[in-house]
Amino acid sequence: MPTGYTAKLMESGQTFPEFIMGCARAFGALIEMRDSPNDAPIPDKFEPSDYNAKRLISAREELAKLKAMSIEERTAFGETTKTKDVDRKQGYLKKAVVENNRLEDMAAQVRAWTPPTKDHQGLKDFMLQQIDVSKNGVDYSEKSLAEAQAKPAPEYYVEAVLSAARDIKYHTEENAKEVERTNSRTEWVQQLRESI
Asked: Do 171 and 134 share a structural domain?
């Protein structure tokens, strides 16, 4: 029975270079092509993904924008960011409380239910166990909200600057790794082509 790599060879024949390049899709440099159609051409040169390069540009723009802000703009940025953070965390807490109330209401109904036989007791126990493990821990949400409310607005600006700087470092490193991987893949394919 033919495989995806031998089907063409078995059906209509292949040259050695065609066969080896088809099989090479299962290895290192070409592994990302293993699910591509067998007749998809193997490039002579690979191009790095531009994801990290684009994110690096965005992070640099964000950092430049933040650093260019006046004192008043930084204060407004911090206050706006704090308000959004507090609102988001209040929303999480409110949602958790509503969901817990629904679970408690259902738990009360389950506790009040009398199973029709002792064989059904396991179902009742299971339902209560499922409700219990589904409860939201509101302690974390309450603590997170209290921290957001207590945090001075200027800290939000400082955190945004630090975050943009971390993003620049991260995407610079990841982009360099991507370029290195891509160059290595290109070299691997070139070496393979030269050998056949």
From this structure: yes
pTM: 0.68
Give yes or no: residues 113 and 40 share one domain. no
SS3 content of the chain, % helix, strand, coil (to 5): 80, 0, 20
CA–CA separation, 186 vs 136, rounded Å?
51
Residue written as token pair 């219990």: 132
The tally of domains found in the chain comes to 2
pLDDT (tens digit per residue) in 23-82? 887 777 777 777 777 777 888 888 899 999 999 999 999 999 999 999 999 999 999 999
The CA distance from 96 to 112, in Å, is 24
Residue 177: domain span: 51-182
Q: 148 and 60 in one domain?
A: yes
What three-state secondary structure class fits 52? helix
CB proximity list for 64: less than 8 A, separation 6 or greater = none
CA separation for the pair 155, 151 (Å, rounded) = 7
